[in-house]
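hey can u run this one w/ L-homoserine bound, need the structure tokens asap thx
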Amino acid sequence: MSKPGIKVFAPASVANVAVGFDVLGFALEAPGDEIIVREGKQPGLMISEIQGAGGKLPYDIMKNTAGYAAHRLLQFVGETDRPLEMEIHKKMPFGSGLGSSAASAAAGVFAVNEFLKTGLTKYEILRFAVEGEQIADGAFHADNVAPALLGGMIMIRDNETLDIKKLHIPSGLFVSVIYPHIEILTKESRGILKQEVSFKDVIRQQGNLGAFVAAMYTSDFGMIGRSLQDLLVEPQRAHLIPHFYAMKEQAMNAGALGFSISGAGPSMFAFSDNSGIAEKINEQANLLYQKNKVPVTTYLSKINHEGAIRF
Ligand code: HSE
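ok here u go:
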């Protein structure tokens, strides 16, 4: 019989949030990944079981986002020979734009950190989680991993140095998440982006991002709504998502404060200032996608303040 271990959960997240490509993201209450870590039988970390991934995830810790994140922590604390077993329970879809690999990386490093009782804070292990996620999409950006680990909405001043700030979240902010079941690989969704954008659009986007952050601190829902406009990335990625503009129009007509792509897509998110509007958006999404024969899953959530937790 396997020894008892510790079990952790790390949530899905919405990156970019319309105005902060690669520098802004927030955690959802659900879905998310679960990881169990226990004492192993042989020296070193090994992944003993992966469930819910349909055979798509590698057991090799150097190639697995959760395994590699944990391995980097073990290197840092000088414990790479410690016998450890990791069980991964994928409870969220891949390539959905909801930070699936980030949730795994955050859960993996958090579980080992808790098991070893290193005393390191979540912020101190963040870099290892980002390095874990980097295996999946090749880029070093914390806009999914930081909220998955730390919770809340995270503004990243600089990805390289992980100079970040948790933003104030106004109470009464609801999130609708719409996930049409097609797979978009982040690498490909990044690959189509132009390397040059117009100066005029950058000026407007800067205004939107600054105003959005200010509006979050002052619970100014009107300005949150006016700010949530992505001039840089949404126009380049919208065509990858079936019925994106029809869905956006319906959400805005239903009273959403703003609507855009979640991370690299295909998921979309809407902010609302009451749960009735958020529910209505999800109902409309179900109708729209069912009518067009695209399987869809919707989630209604508040912003999750906790991030990764032991349970
Ligand atoms: N900021 C990233 C992107 C999030 O949109 O490509 C997905 O990893």
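The chain is about 35% helix and 25% strand. anyway lmk if its weird
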